[in-house]
Write a structure and sequence with these properties.
Order of helices and strands: HHHHHHHHHH
Largest sheet: none
Shape: globular
Number of strands: 0
Number of helices: 10
Number of domains: 1
Helix content: over 70%
Length: 211
């Protein structure tokens, strides 16, 4: 299996799960269909766009593969009839689960491309993390919220970082690409889900409160 095939698989799957996350959040914020599409688009393509800009890749991945945009548009069109279901409380867990899978797949796609561009280790890791979290960051900012990755102390970025590190070690050790992709994405998504289930949190920086 070639690197290009692996990247395509990871991107399509991550786009789907992140777009679903964006659609759900937009419906819950009572946005119209334009807002729903914008949220789905930004959540699905934000991290990959920043990745491509940092790696100086042209055209951007969603421009080169414009069928991805049609896929997001289709999800947008089927969202309004499901708005009643989407507003249920249990949908919070759907958002968290889809975010975890999207985080794993997009993080490793970023690390994979940075590795293919012969970037040093720290750059591979940073680009992987940015690719994984930036779509969600943009989604939360547009919703006028502090991004989840910064405020609730759950280790999304750390999960991404260590998953990318595992991918890098396996790639450097000569392990075939698909094994590294599956292992890195699995560790990222799996550790993220475990953090949600067991309520693992990043410690707060010690200091005096303003009160």
């Amino acid at each position: 299996m070639t690197t290009e095939m692996l990247l395509t698989f990871a991107e399509i799957t991550a786009i789907l799960v992140f777009a679903i996350s964006g659609v759900i959040e937009a419906v819950r914020k009572k946005m119209d269909v334009v807002g729903i599409f914008a949220m789905a688009f930004i959540t699905a393509f934000g991290g990959g766009t920043v990745r491509d800009l940092l790696l100086d890749r042209r055209p951007l991945f969603w421009v080169q593969n414009h069928e991805y945009v049609w896929l997001v548009l289709l999800l947008t069109l089927i969202a309004p009839p499901l708005s009643g279901v989407i507003r249920h409380r249990w949908v919070d867990w759907i958002i968290k689960i889809t975010d975890a899978f999207g985080l794993g797949l997009f993080s490793i796609s970023g690390a994979l491309l940075a590795q293919a561009a012969n970037m040093p280790l720290i750059v591979v890791l940073i680009i992987g993390v940015i690719t994984g979290v930036f779509g969600g960051v943009m989604r939360d900012v547009i919703c006028d919220e502090i991004p989840v990755v910064f405020r609730n102390h759950q280790p999304y970025a750390l999960c991404s970082f260590f998953g990318c590190l595992v991918y890098w070690f396996l790639h450097t050790a000569g392990v075939v690409s698909w094994v590294g992709l599956v292992a890195g994405a699995g560790i990222t998504s799996g550790s993220c889900l475990l953090a949600l289930i067991w309520d693992w949190r990043v410690p707060e920086w010690p200091g005096k409160s303003n009160g």
